[in-house]
Specification:
The protein contains two helices and nine strands, in the order αββββαβββββ. The chain is mainly beta.
């Protein structure tokens, strides 16, 4: 192969390589801040009310280019055993064998498949939720609130608000059908800290680091 032919190939490949490098550089890895991220859910109680419960993220990661969401992805684990209904006996009942069965299924797991962007700050995350040993598709509409450095300049944080709804019976949680509703409404307020070099397994918090 002639030198001129090599040069022609290099002239074609170099822009592609530069583009791929730019794409990788724009996509950053974040770790969910387990202190500032919370999940709240609500379900019907015998037609009287829709009480709230709270769950927390154990660990998880997010990959995001704030300007191009086409390659965004996320994966996270949710602590079921730490469910908070505002009363210790109620927590124990919800965590019991006939409902969440936390002794067997201590955590729920969500992994994304794709992201559909609907406008500059909103989108829908398409993924799979594994709960109570059953995996089902779950779509999560969300809003990207902000990506910025924190007040004390120690971290770059991505913040999201999201909602979801699911049918508990789809996941094999069928006890008390006449007193506990099937449809569960979920709200998520999530913060993730940019951390391109850390392990994907370790949870990240910043409460202690950012005390004034």
């Amino acid at each position: 192969m002639s030198l001129s032919h090599h040069a022609r190939w290099l002239s074609l490949l170099l822009p592609l390589a530069m583009y791929a490098t730019a794409v990788r550089a724009a996509t950053h890895t974040y770790r969910y801040d387990t202190v500032h991220s919370q999940i709240v859910f609500s379900i019907d109680h015998d037609g009287y009310s829709r009480p709230f419960g709270r769950l927390h993220i154990v660990r998880g990661w997010l990959r995001l280019d704030k300007d191009d969401w086409s390659h965004a992805s996320t994966e996270l684990d949710i602590d079921l055993a730490g469910v908070d209904m505002g009363d210790a006996d109620w927590d124990k009942a919800v965590c019991g064998r006939v409902l969440l069965d936390c002794a067997v299924y201590r955590e729920a797991h969500f992994v994304s498949r794709s992201v559909q962007r609907t406008d500059a700050s909103h989108g829908v995350l398409h993924g799979t939720l594994t709960l109570h040993g059953v995996s089902r598709p779950l779509d999560i509409p969300f809003r990207l609130n902000r990506v910025a450095r924190t007040l004390y300049g120690l971290h770059t944080v991505a913040g999201f608000s999201a909602t979801a709804s699911l049918d508990r019976t789809d996941f094999g949680i069928t006890a008390f059908p006449d007193s506990i509703g099937h449809d569960v409404s979920v709200w998520m307020e999530l913060e993730a800290i940019r951390d391109d070099h850390s392990s994907t397994q370790a949870p990240v918090t910043r409460a202690a680091k950012e005390s004034p």
